[in-house]
């Protein structure tokens, strides 16, 4: 495909998508902040609008996942969780979402019913309301199944919004669970490889885990490692903060099933999407307490401290045999249409 046409990599969460956003989307939009809040040019997981003693945090997500139903979830659950998590990683309590649905003519009403029930159940896990939306139908040959677009709103005390750029030298890096589950389970299921595992997506709302971490204190930066995976998220956090990060490979939780599938397919689990994990920087003197609090929450039992922030401009992984490798941001997520 020519360079002047959109291809699948432009939506895959890596370097190609970042270049498109920077060169075409941002260049054509006035990047104004509202009341001095976080604006579009920050390229964080959301933006903020200061109002009195509080800040409203807002984010929008489009969902084109294939297949619509997969082990561990469906497009309804991922639409709700993805948007809730983008609000949550900014330190804001998620309050409500809107939901726009664009469907193909002939889409089964039974499937739509399941999807909406799933979206609602996911919201109820963290006491989020679905308060508005829109529904459109397109001709059968103009759309593949269903597309959902969700917008989330949350609230934080003024000055307490967490940026993905806030890492400081000495901070510990915590990941709230095993990496690669969503992307690898989706790939094996979608392609029908027949792997004999119980691997399923990790898709889940993260607010309850994040609230526990914030209550302990010391959280300096957060990001949910979706498209482009952990590799993209950790590199973005390092780059934006102007620091380096050293990770211990042995400390990073990855399920045996994910290892097996990734080796068979030749895909790095660090580069595939997660839909129920958070990467966070935490002050060293608070890290153990934050980890303990996270481990006590649903979806947090496999949380781990995996590295620390250092002076530098790189992300390095120390390997079990005493070597080290540079972990770079991927060109694109190797598993397309994962969210």
From TrEMBL:
Family per UniProt? Belongs to the HypE family.
Gene transcribed to yield this protein: hypE2
Gene Ontology biological process terms from the UniProt entry = protein maturation
The cross-references to InterPro entries, in alphabetical order and at most eight, read: HypE, PurM-like_C_dom, PurM-like_C_sf, PurM-like_N, PurM-like_N_sf
Xref: Pfam families: AIRS, AIRS_C
Protein name from the UniProt record: Hydrogenase expression/formation protein HypE2
Q: Which intervals hold domain PurM-like N-terminal?
A: 44-156
Residue span, PurM-like C-terminal domain: 168-316
Look up and give the organism this protein is from.
Methanobrevibacter millerae
């Amino acid at each position: 495909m020519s360079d002047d046409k959109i291809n699948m990599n432009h939506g895959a969460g890596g370097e190609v998508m970042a270049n498109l956003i920077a060169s075409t989307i941002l260049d054509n939009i006035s990047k104004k902040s509202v009341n001095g809040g976080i604006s579009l040019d920050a390229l964080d997981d959301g933006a903020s609008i200061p109002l009195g003693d509080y800040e409203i945090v807002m984010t929008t997500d489009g969902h084109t996942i294939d297949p619509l139903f997969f082990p561990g979830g469906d497009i309804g659950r991922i639409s709700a969780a993805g948007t809730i998590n983008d609000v949550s990683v900014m330190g804001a309590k998620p309050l409500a979402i809107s939901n726009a649905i664009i469907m193909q003519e002939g889409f089964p009403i039974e499937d739509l019913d399941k999807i909406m029930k799933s979206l609602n159940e996911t919201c109820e896990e963290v006491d989020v309301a679905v308060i508005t939306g829109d529904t459109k139908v397109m001709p059968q040959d103009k759309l593949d199944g269903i597309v959902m677009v969700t917008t989330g709103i949350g609230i934080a005390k003024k000055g307490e919004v967490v940026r993905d750029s806030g890492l400081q030298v000495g901070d510990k890096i915590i990941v709230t669970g095993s990496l690669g589950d969503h992307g690898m389970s989706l790939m094996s299921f979608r392609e029908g490889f027949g792997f004999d595992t119980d691997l399923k997506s990790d898709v889940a709302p993260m607010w309850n885990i994040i609230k526990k971490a914030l209550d302990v204190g010391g959280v300096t930066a957060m990001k949910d490692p979706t498209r482009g995976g952990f590799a993209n998220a950790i590199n973005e956090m390092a780059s934006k903060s102007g620091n380096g990060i050293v990770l211990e490979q042995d400390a990073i939780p990855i399920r045996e099933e994910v290892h097996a599938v990734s080796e068979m397919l030749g895909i790095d689990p660090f580069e595939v999407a997660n839909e129920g994990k958070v990467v966070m920087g935490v002050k060293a003197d608070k890290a153990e307490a934050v980890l303990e609090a996270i481990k006590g929450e649903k979806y947090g039992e496999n949380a781990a401290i995996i590295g620390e922030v250092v002076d530098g401009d790189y992300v390095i992984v120390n390997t079990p045999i005493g070597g080290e490798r540079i972990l770079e941001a991927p060109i694109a997520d190797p598993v397309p249409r994962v969210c």
